[in-house]
Design the sequence.
């Protein structure tokens, strides 16, 4: 830390925070006798709190966002220069950075064509949901309004996106939800017994898991189903990569029943999974909608995008004489120019520094380290993920796969924090299944960073479980 704030300043900040800030995802009762953590500064992979404690951030801002690391002066300068010239105008008109970033983004997404700007992943997903519903009225006489979503997947915190939420604890106490959202089963091979498919493995399991989606489509009636919304790698629901055969069969099903495929890249997008810019590109998926947010500008400015094909776009300009024909929607802060200005620099950094390649290499190193920990700690039942997006599932018994209690998972998180490493966990999400530690270090991570993270996990597991 550079010491810009003195002790009195920091005391005032803490007092103001406790008195007036309502933190995300936090129970505030403990703050009556203790202080919240306030992050004062970040540089590269490290952050410092109000007490001067240094941490390695192994979750990129706690929610998988700061992909290129903290303290990027060139992004800050690009944002400053842009907002001094033109900070905002509603997206009914265009702007220079919005046009240039859309062009750059589409270059990375063959088959896609149009970018709709908004300000959060939740809102980006809602835009796609609205488009599906409007297409149902424009093209199918008001039918095909149903949107399928997958158990364990997460698509946002608004009521509509929670209606498509596959994590029941996140949804508790917020219903009733919007109609015509229908759940399909997860595709996690580690827990295939939950699907009645424990006799299958590999590609056979992947195809069978996808076929369970078809069974639900047939139950609901294909003429009523408009879209299927899936994460390419399930994030907060357990860091789950679909098995071989799954995505090919999913696309066959969507094509057979005329169902739009919506891929939620809010977590996986812009390099997180390594090698490719987006998670779906690893699996040969050809989506109709792709939504993204977190890593688009690495948290330096608020931006989210709903990207679609020219075919979908054309549906909304087919009858210009009809005043209701176009997509009648606005996202106020989708008109902010700071977001695309930051996103352009963010993407340039990833290209110039070879961060997709680094993500792949460091992801392989981290997965290897975690697999080595699995040999040492019987409490680890599974290691999984892609690129620098990894998870380990903790179980009481590897044979029964009984999950450890959530309190023990959070104890590991706390111990890592005490050792100066911030890690993530699936908590308060899935009843009885909040037993996965999650890791998503910045794409700039070095071998030393990766080893320090996994060393802390090793020590924390030893302390909590023996």
Sequence:
């Amino acid at each position: 830390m550079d010491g810009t704030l003195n002790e009195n300043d920091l005391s005032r900040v803490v007092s103001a925070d406790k008195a007036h800030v309502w933190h995300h995802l936090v129970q505030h009762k403990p703050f009556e006798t203790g202080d919240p953590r306030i992050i004062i500064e970040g540089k590269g992979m490290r952050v410092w709190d109000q007490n001067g404690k240094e941490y390695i951030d192994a979750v990129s801002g706690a929610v998988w966002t700061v992909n290129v690391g903290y303290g990027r002066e060139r992004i800050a300068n690009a944002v400053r220069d842009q907002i001094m010239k033109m900070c905002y105008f509603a997206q009914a008109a265009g702007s220079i950075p919005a046009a240039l970033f859309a062009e750059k983004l589409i270059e990375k997404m063959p088959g896609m064509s149009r970018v709709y700007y908004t300000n959060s992943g939740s809102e980006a997903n809602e835009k796609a949901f609205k488009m599906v519903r409007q297409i149902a009225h424009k093209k199918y006489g008001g039918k095909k309004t149903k949107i399928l979503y997958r158990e364990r997947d997460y698509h946002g915190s608004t009521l509509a996106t929670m209606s498509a939420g596959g994590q029941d604890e996140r949804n508790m106490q917020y219903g009733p939800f919007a109609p015509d959202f229908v759940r399909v089963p997860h595709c996690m091979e580690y827990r295939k017994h939950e699907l009645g498919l424990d006799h299958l493995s590999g590609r056979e399991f992947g195809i069978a898991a996808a076929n369970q989606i078809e069974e639900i489509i047939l139950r609901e009636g294909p003429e009523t189903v408009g879209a299927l919304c899936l994460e390419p790698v399930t994030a907060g629901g357990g860091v789950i990569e679909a098995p071989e055969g799954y995505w090919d069969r999913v696309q066959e099903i969507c094509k057979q029943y005329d169902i739009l495929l919506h891929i939620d890249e809010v977590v996986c997008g812009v390099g997180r999974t390594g090698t490719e810019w987006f998670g779906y590109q690893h699996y040969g998926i050809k989506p109709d909608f792709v939504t993204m947010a977190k890593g688009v500008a690495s948290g330096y400015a608020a931006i989210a995008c709903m990207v679609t094909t020219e075919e979908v776009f054309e549906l909304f300009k087919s009858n210009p004489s009809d005043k209701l024909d176009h997509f009648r929607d606005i996202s106020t802060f989708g008109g902010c120019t700071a977001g695309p200005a930051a996103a352009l620099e963010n993407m340039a950094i990833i290209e110039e520094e070879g961060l997709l390649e680094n993500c792949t290499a460091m992801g392989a190193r981290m997965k290897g380290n975690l697999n080595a920990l699995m040999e040492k700690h019987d409490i680890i039942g599974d290691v999984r993920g892609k690129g620098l997006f990894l998870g380990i599932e903790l179980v009481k018994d590897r044979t029964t796969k009984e999950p450890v209690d959530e309190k023990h998972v959070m104890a590991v998180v706390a111990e890592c924090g005490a050792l100066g490493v911030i890690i993530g966990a699936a908590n308060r999400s899935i009843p009885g299944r909040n037993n996965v530690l999650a890791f998503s270090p910045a794409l700039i991570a070095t071998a030393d960073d990766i080893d320090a993270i996994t060393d802390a996990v090793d020590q924390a597991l030893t302390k909590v479980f023996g």
Observations:
- DSSP finds 14 helices and 18 strands in the chain.
